[in-house]
Amino acid sequence: METVLALLVGVFFMSAIYLILSRRTVRILIGVVILGNAVNLLIFTAGRLTVAVPPVIPTDLPTVAGTVANPLPQALILTAIVISFSLFAFLLILSYRAFQELGTDDVDEMRDAEPAERRLPPMEY
Amino acid sequence: MIVEPLAAVDWLVIAPVALPLAGGALCLVLRSRGALQAKLTILIMGLLVLLNAGLFGKVATDGPMIMAMGNWLPPFAIVFAVDILGALLALTTAVVGLVGAIYASADIDIGRRRFGFYTFYLLLITGVSGAFLTGDIFNLYVWFEVLLIASFGLLILGGERAQLDGAVKYGVLNLLATTFFLIAVGLLYGLVGTLNMADIALSLQTLSPEAPIAAITVLFFVAFAMKAAAFPLNFWLPAAYHTPRIVVAAVFAGLLTKVGVYALLRVFVMLLPASHVDLSTVILWVGVLTMFVGAFGALAQTEVRRLLGFVVIGGIGNMLVGIAIGSEGALAGTVFYAVHSILVMTALYFAAGGMERIAGSSSLHSASGLYRADPMFAALFLVLAFAVSGLPPFSGFWPKVMLVRASVAADVGWAAGAILFTGLLTTIAMARIWLLAFWREATQEAPIRVANVDGDNRSAWLGPIAILAAIIFVLGVLPEGIMSASLAGAEALLDPASYVETVLGEGGR
């Protein structure tokens, strides 16, 4: 099972990096969202895959009985999902707004912050 | 479980995070009351400076402090753990946040206030303080994201074309950097099964040598180098930092890259000392190249705000050299340099804002005659220019001395040469600003607007520069206090025994 998940994570990373290397913001963003999912799967796999009971303490016992599943990776993934989802939503709207204002979704053509033409300052000083 | 109630003084650990967070929420409630928000933010930041000073004093005398969330004992609880390094940087953050809030009261118009400038601003301070004070590596990621989200909001406030363009690049690259950080955290968790920094430091010492720690180290390095804008991952910074309002650019330039440097110090030097030694040559080269990119980039710019972006990068190079050498003196130099850089870069961006106010532009083509228009401002700029170039008697001198001495002691004299040479190039870049913008007679293009700069406004933008210049001067003339604090911070990083003991109790678990 770990091997399958590890391969899946690899495929996700591959596709994400391919998309992020693109020049179009929408493709980059799809890459970012796939990357986020790849990382979530990676944390899930890194937390060990076990067939075990949920980490709940029975009322008649002072501690958990037997092997329990590790809840921490799920807590981490939940946090990461919330954060990456909200940032993705923000970036999606940002790139739409940038497309409206700048008239392009090609990052090479977005030159407002870094204009290509430059004048030299006066040299006589 | 911890059962006895906390002493009042222990709440200082969480105060630098809780206070601005509450303030941000309050500013959101008072969304339509712009003037009130401005006053409230200044009040909160002033209080924060006092609290941080108290925290710093307590940590300096009594050693590291912790606070465990939900009263569960570490390593199971999420902890806030403050050592002298974190306390020093959090104090500097609060000082910069306070002067930024004062500057903002004159700089931020009603529209931006209504769109939540102050909320974002306080959340940014929350995120930065949280990153400096947390003792849990996953929470370090969360605080990175908090400050990232707040910085997005600040960066695009106003929605100008250049801002949107810069924000796309800033946003995507910084999100990638934090994702790399998360990958490294996930893999490290898989390896050692804990997220508590003190516990990681202990567990890694007993790890088998075959463990795949090198890949994790490199991922951490890429993530933090991207955050710190180190070469070759620096391209988002000059694209984005000159586009927002000047107070936003100033606080960004002061704080955000230094969070990356802090994370490098904490994770590399304290948690991964063995891999840090393996990677030190790479870090050294990255540092030297970053210095050169910063210096040459600064020389090539004709727009002061863009020029300052490259000066920020040059400073990061100096700090990386200190991290690469990794001796106590070098690390202390890095810490001192970080504090100096937070103060001086913020002040320089404020000065660029002042140039725009008086001369109508921060371009070296048209800005001119500033010395005649405002000699006081020109004198303050000269202080900052000297400080950022590393010339005595200002704060930039001492960290450079420490770094140069440490490089020579570590047999990498060429790195010392690079520090001095790029320092010279930075001096030339700053001298260009001085000659063209301040010393040159006012040109036809320059609409000197002295008449527009009225009295109360003037103190609101010149005051913050003066405060920071005064601190920079004091740090330059009386460096002993901060130097011993930096040395103590470096010592604690190299030998985290007392930190580990404070977090985990006597003798580890």
From TrEMBL, chain A:
<keyword id="KW-0472">Membrane</keyword>
<keyword id="KW-0812">Transmembrane</keyword>
<keyword id="KW-1003">Cell membrane</keyword>
<keyword id="KW-1133">Transmembrane helix</keyword>
<dbReference type="InterPro" id="IPR050601">
    <property type="entry name" value="CPA3_antiporter_subunitC"/>
</dbReference>
<feature type="transmembrane region" description="Helical">
    <location>
        <begin position="6"/>
        <end position="21"/>
    </location>
</feature>
<feature type="transmembrane region" description="Helical">
    <location>
        <begin position="71"/>
        <end position="94"/>
    </location>
</feature>
<dbReference type="InterPro" id="IPR039428">
    <property type="entry name" value="NUOK/Mnh_C1-like"/>
</dbReference>
<comment type="similarity">
    <text>Belongs to the CPA3 antiporters (TC 2.A.63) subunit C family.</text>
</comment>
<protein>
    <submittedName>
        <fullName>Multicomponent Na+:H+ antiporter subunit C</fullName>
    </submittedName>
</protein>
<feature type="transmembrane region" description="Helical">
    <location>
        <begin position="28"/>
        <end position="51"/>
    </location>
</feature>
<dbReference type="Pfam" id="PF00420">
    <property type="entry name" value="Oxidored_q2"/>
</dbReference>
<dbReference type="GO" id="GO:0005886">
    <property type="term" value="C:plasma membrane"/>
</dbReference>
